[in-house]
Specification:
HIT family, subunit A, 21% helix, binds guanosine-5'-monophosphate, binds zinc ion
Length: 115
């Protein structure tokens, strides 16, 4: 685990976060700067810098991150209305924290195309 990685430190419990879900592969926290009424970050426990570094050995993990997102959408009461799962990747993709995470956004209508 890179000791300087913000999300590794949150996963390890070294830094505080509003945790809403955890299992042996995924930790979910509320985003510190929410962009929608529900804005949750699904973090992999494993340090992976971005989608670019995802390998075949991570297939199960990726599936579990999306499954956890769907489960949390139901718990948050936004599943029926619809929501968005987003994975920003690299600088042009808008990624600011280099540790794999899926944004779960919902509770308001989303525009397309994204900014
Ligand atoms: P990215 O821009 O990499 O796709 O998403 C990073 C997200 O992490 C941003 O939405 C940002 O608000 C959130 N974030 C940054 N630092 C913290 C933090 O210390 N705690 C929490 N809960 N979220 C953070
Ligand atoms: Zn990390």
């Amino acid at each position: 685990m890179p000791s300087e990685c913000l999300f590794c430190r949150i996963v390890a419990g070294e830094l505080p976060a509003a945790q809403v879900y955890a299992d042996d592969a995924v930790v979910a926290i509320r985003d510190i700067a929410p962009q929608a009424p529900t804005h949750i970050l699904l973090l992999s426990r494993k340090h992976i810098a971005s989608v670019r570094e995802v390998g075949a050995e991570d297939r199960d993990l990726i599936g579990r991150m999306f499954a956890a997102g769907a489960e949390l959408a139901t718990r948050e009461g936004i599943a029926a209305g619809g929501y968005r799962l987003v994975v920003n990747t690299g600088r042009n993709g808008g990624q600011t924290v280099d540790h794999l995470h899926v944004h779960l956004l919902g509770g308001r209508p989303m525009a397309w195309p994204p900014g």
